[in-house]
Amino acid sequence: MSLNKNSPFSNLKYDFPSGLVVYLVALPLCLGIALASTGRSDLLFSGIIAGVVGGIVVGSISKSSLGVAGPAAGLVVIVLNALETLGSFEAFLLAVVLAGAIQVIAGLLKAGIIGYYFPSSVIKGMLAAIGITLILKEIPHAFGYDADFMGDEAFAQKDGQNTFTELWNAVRYSSTGAIIISAVSLGLLILFDRPFMKRIQLFRFIPGALFVVAAGILLNLGYAAFAPELVLTGEHMVQLPVASSAGEFFGFFKTPDFSAFQNVEVYTIAVTLAIVASLETLLSVEATDKLDPFKRSTPTNRELIAQGIGNMTSGLIGGLPITQVIVRSSANIDSGGRTRMSTIIHGSILLLSAVLIPALLNYIPLASLAAILLLVGYKLSKFSLYKGMYALGKEQFIPFVVTIIAILSTDLLKGIAVGMVVAIYFILRKNYQHSYHYIKEQHREGEVITLQLSEEVTFLNKGSINATLENLPDGATVIIDGSKSINIDYDVLEIIQDFKKHSAPLRNITVETRGINDVEVVGGH
User: Fold this and answer.
1) Cα dihedral: 357, 362, 366, 367 (round 10)
2) 70 Cα distance to chain centroid
3) How far is it, in rounded angstroms, from Cα 60 to Cα 208?
4) Sign of the torsion formed by the C-alpha atoms of 151, 152, 154 and 155
5) Which of 390, 332, 327, 391 is CA-nearest to residue 126?
6) Per the UniProt record, which residue ranges are transmembrane (predicted)?
7) Which of 152, 203, 228, 297 is most buried (CB neighbours < 10 A)?
8) Domains of the chain, earliest start first
9) Angle at 197 between CA 192 and CA 201, to 5 degrees
10) C-alpha distance from residue 214 to each of 141, 173, 175, 221, 355 (Å)
11) Residue 99 contacts by C-beta under 8 Å, 6 or more apart in sequence?
């Protein structure tokens, strides 16, 4: 597999079909997250605006090759609470603009470096957990039970249900028409994923997801003609706002209430949005880079700036806050996207379809789109991922599994936090054990012990070094050799000096240091 870098359009034969698939995935998610975030059907278009801005604006500025930005489920609760606190969607838009400005400043201050400190085991656990979550959350939609919004990632739902009770409800209140459509859709997707289909020139450019959507529309129209009891309508369909005139369409766009500058709550919400959106973006960037078949690295500071400009733009024209999102990004990768043109294409199609064919889009059954997301979920959480992580040993596998369980039982950010704690424990434990080499030799004059310090000795190592010094046998000779160390933290130097000057003489231990400078022990005797 090779990447053509001659021009932004040189990979169009890969990027256009991929952008089309991402569009089909993004459409219901943008609408679902908008409804869940605002609780108002008249603000559904705010999700579409955010999706368009995430695709075109962020896609044009970002250097992320395959990352896709848009409204995120992780911000739903924050948006809901913010609207309740501020009492006005227009005042909330001002908070979104300010959050974007904070992100731009954070990027300029190089805060994106935080993205490099997420352990690989946690990121891979996040990917697997999102895959499982997608499967569990989309099964109800595939069964025709659409009480929860498409795109929800949290275990507990605002209607009092949770991921597992929704599965039972899906069985109890299933729709035969939806099950037939989702089964046919899954069958088509699996067929199109077979190698022999990809050798057919037509199907290299037209993705299977487009045929799935067409099949879903035709099947539902067939129900209307021959089996009315199976017809899907209302909440079982895409519900994009349809304007009856140009004036009504432009009425979907809102502008911030700049008089809310005097409201302190606006700034609190802006900071909260900026922090959470930035964390979700950096997590998604790290995950997307791991999935990228070309193993490109995204400049995280540039990404924060791009996301910040995106949020400022979205807030100024009536859109929800945005982040880079892993579901759409992974759909982009799985569909063969090569460059950020696929992201821009998805945003452009989203805009054009919302302007030109909104009524036609409302013929799409959610069951068809659920089938697409089910396959995305499966690819994120393949058995080979678990097998590979298990082979790496418990220091990688345990944080990986804990992250999965924590995300599935809470939400993305809480689950990541739990996974980070466990991963850091194993990092500290390993660091504790490998800060030096312990060499014991027998000489005629007695026992000589050499502690050969590692290249990097930080404050994290002081516990293990202190314990080793305390457990040295009385009367021994110890050589503490730091000649190969590039850096030894003050904390460790202080422990060594305290031992050499105070503890060792009391126990008749002879201490020789090599390559270790004396330090002034503040507060010492």
Assistant:
1) -90
2) 12
3) 27
4) negative
5) 327
6) 20-37, 43-61, 89-109, 116-136, 173-192, 204-226, 266-285, 349-377, 397-428
7) 152
8) 12-405 (no CATH), 434-514 (3.30.750.24)
9) 115
10) 18, 25, 20, 11, 20
11) 269, 270, 271, 273, 274, 277, 308, 311, 315, 321
